[in-house]
Each structure stands twice: as C-alpha cells, then as structure tokens.
Amino acid sequence: MKRFVSCFLLLMTLSTGAVAQSPGTVRAVVYEFLRGQTAGQTGQVKIEVEQPTIPAHMPRCDRLEPWLPAGARPWGKVRVGVRCVGQGNWALYVPAQVSILGNYLAAARALRPGDVLTIADIELRSGEITSMGRQLLTEPEQAIGQQMRFAVASGQPLRATMMAAPIVIQSGRPVKVIVQGSGFSVANQGTALGNARAGQAIRVRLASGKVVSGVATDNGEVLIRP
Fold it and tell me: Which residue, of 13, 53, 99, 146, is most buried by count of CB atoms within 10 Å of its CB?
C-alpha cells in the first residue's frame, strides 16, 4: 500500500510530459518515495536525500520509478534506485538517510544471564532509533516475562535477540506428565531429559524407565496428546 501511494504521487508529479533529469527532480522523486514508505511509522521521521550526480548525456524521461534493493528497508542509511520506465532505459542509485526519533526500551539496571524481566528492570527512553540495531524493543509487553540470554549493562537498549522465553522445565528435575486424549486425561511423574521453554518439545523418562516425548506447557508440565 505504501508503495502504491508513493508511486501515485510521483506519477501525478511527472504526468505533465517529459521531465529533464535535473538533480533536483530525481532528489524529489526519492524523497516522496521514502515519505510514502515511512507513512504510519511510529515516531518523528526525518528524511535526507543526497543531491545525485546526473551524467550530462542522460536521456530525458517521462516516467521515473523508484525502488528499494532486495532486502533493504527505509531505515537508517539506504540507497534508493531510480529507473527510467520507457524510452530512456537507464537507472541510478541515490544515497539517503531515514532518521526516526521514537521510544525504545532500555535496561533500568545491570541485567544478568537468566534474569526474568519485570517492569522494574526496564525503562522507556526516547532517541534516534535507526542507529540502535534491528529488533529493538519499543513496548514493555515485549520484554516483561522474558529471560535474559546474556549480560546487559544499565541503560543499554534492549533487543529481541538479547532474550528468550524463560525455561520452564530443567534437565534432571521431576516433572508432571499429562497424557490427554478425547474424553480422558492421565497424569504421571517422570524426569526431564533436557531443558525446555513453553511450547518446545521435550523427552521425559517415566518411573517405569520408558522414555516419552511431549510439549512443555507454561506451568512447567509436559503434555502428550496421542
């Protein structure tokens, strides 16, 4: 949808006839494209487009089409492609910078591996978020209840890669095993043969010595559905 709106605006701008390939024209095309791509983005968006160098022999064009290279997104430093659709058959790349001033989560204290986060462990800050890496957390719900994978210093921005769902079953510990089927439920006891987070598969050795496989639940039990 963003791409459609952006291209529509550009076509309206360029529909009056052949357009001389001035640096200002190409720069305006890139700016409008990025503005459309970032529409709806939370936070204050600032777009800066470098003045492109246009070769003197560049043919005139009546339709310019911008695009982002595969895997790129309008975030931080980016190169936007601009191609001539029609008789010109040329393309160039224009460097740009998309800066976003928004809220993000940071560690309210030094965090250690294994810490399960509470509201007291995080704080909301404001800053230029495109320079803070991917998967930056912006809402408390994204962090509360998660378990730290490694140490993080106080004040450091929090990213999804720093944490995971907490371990609910520990290897070697007793665990309740529930076999649940249509109209029946049978409970048993066993010993966990590995660590598991909620939703992960886990093997358990029952008192009889038989090893079974099930899925770890939020409350630390193992559920087996025949």
Answer: 146
